[in-house]
Amino acid sequence: MDRRKFIQTTAGGIAAGTAGMYGSSALAADDIKVGSIHDLSGGLDIYGKPMVDALTLAIEEQNAAGGLLGKKVTLINYDSQSNMQKYTEYAQMAALKDKVAVVHGGITSASREVIRPVLTKNKTLYFYNTQYEGGVCDRNTFCTGVTPAQTVQKLIPYAMKKWGKKVYIVAADYNYGQITSEWVKKYVAEGGGSVQAVEFFPLDVTNFGPTIAKIEAAKPDFVMSALVGGAHMSFYRQWGAAGMLKKIPMASSTFSVGNEQIVLAPEECNGMVLSYNYFQKIATPENKAFLAAFQKRFGADYPNVTELAMGTYQGFKLWAEAVKKAGSIDRMKVIEAMESGISIAAPSGKVTVDGASHHCILDVSLAEVKNKKLDILQTFSQQAPSDTSSVCNLKKNPAENKQFVIKV
C-alpha cells in the first residue's frame, strides 16, 4: 500500500474537499461543539487523519448513547494543513467564533505550543492527545499521551539487553526530538551504555544517505529513531535499500504512530522495537469491542488503529466523563472534575488522570514490527508520568503555565 492510498483509506470519517474547516453535520443552536485541529493535509497528515477518525467514532458513540447532558455533541474539524499559522488561526476561530466547549488537537510539540497559549488566553479547554517529550504544565491543558518516563524508560533497557550498549540516535530537529534524545542519553547511561552520536533533521529532510554511511562506519549495537513525519519515512526506505536492517537493529519512540509499517516493505522495518500505550493486538474485551465498532464504522480493511488515534479516542472519553461528573461543560467545572482523578476502562487498559500534572497513568507495552503487524512483547501496567509530575503540581501551583525542560 503506497502512502497516498493509505491516507485515503484512513480518512473514512472525514468529508472530502479542500476547505480548511468543515463540520461533521449541521449545527443546532444547543449542540455541544467539540473542535478538532489536526493535519488532514500536508506532511503530517499520516498522523492527523486516523486521529480524526477516532474522534469521529468517539463522538458518534456518545451521541448514540444519548449525547452529553441531554444534548447532541457536534464535531467541527479544522484542517491545519501542517502549517503553524493555520494552527493559530483555527485555535482563535474555535475559541472566539465557534465557541467550542473543548479543543482536541495538535500533533507536533510545535503545534501544541502554538495552540496552547491561544486557548488558555481565551479560556477554552484544550486536550493534547499525542505521545510527546513531557513537561507541559498548564491548568487549561490536559496531555493524555505517553511521556518518556512511561515509554523510553522501558524501550532503552530492553533494546540494550537485546542488542548491546552502543547507541546511535537520529531524531527530528525540534523540541520533541531534542528533548527525547536527552532522555535516551539518560537511560543509556543508567544502563552502562554509550551514545556514539546524535543527529537531528528538519521535518522536510528526505536525503539520509550521508547519515546512513556514518552509522555503518560507527557500528553501533542499535539505532534509536525519534524521526517524525512523511518526509522522514525516507530514512527507513534508504536504510532498507542499503541493506542496513540486517546489520544494525533499530528501536523507535515514533515509528508506527503514522502507520509507517503499513506503507513500508517488511525488509525496511521488520524487527524494529517500539513502546506505546496502545497496540491493536491488546487482548481485552474493551479492545475487542472497540475494534469491532471501529471497523464497522470505517471498514474491515482499515490498516491499523494507531497510538495517536487511540490517544484521541481516550482523550474525548475522559473529557466526556468529566462533563458528566461536573454536570456541565463549564470549563472550570470540567477541569475540577478531571483533577479529581477521572478514570476510564479504555481499549488500551485503565486510563486515569493524574490531577496534579494533568497527564495520564497508563499501561505501556513493548512491541516488535513483524510483516506489517505490531506484535506485543511485554506489558507494564499503570505507568505514571513521573517525568512531568516531578516538576508540575497544578494543585499546589494552579497558575503555572509553561513547558518545563526537565533536567535529566
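That was protein one. Protein two is written in the same sequence-then-structure order:
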Amino acid sequence: MNLEEKILEIMRETFETQDISTATSQRNCARWDSLRHLTLASELEDAFDIDLEPEEIATMTDFSHVLEMIQSKL
C-alpha cells in the first residue's frame, strides 16, 4: 500500500464513509467536522509515527494538504 492509499484508508475509517478520494476536502465532505478533523490528525500521527503541531493540523483542509504534511514529516 502506498502513502496515498494509506491516507485514504485512514480518512475513510475516520469519516466513516467510503466516499473519500484525492479530491476530498472539508468543503465537500459533510462528515469532516472539527471533532473528526482532530481524530484524523491523531490517527495519522499513530499510523506514521509522527507529531503534528496545532498549526500544521489547521492547514490540513483537504487530501492534498494532508498528503503534503505527511510527506514533509517522513
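The chain has one domain: 3-73. Keep this in mind for the problem set.
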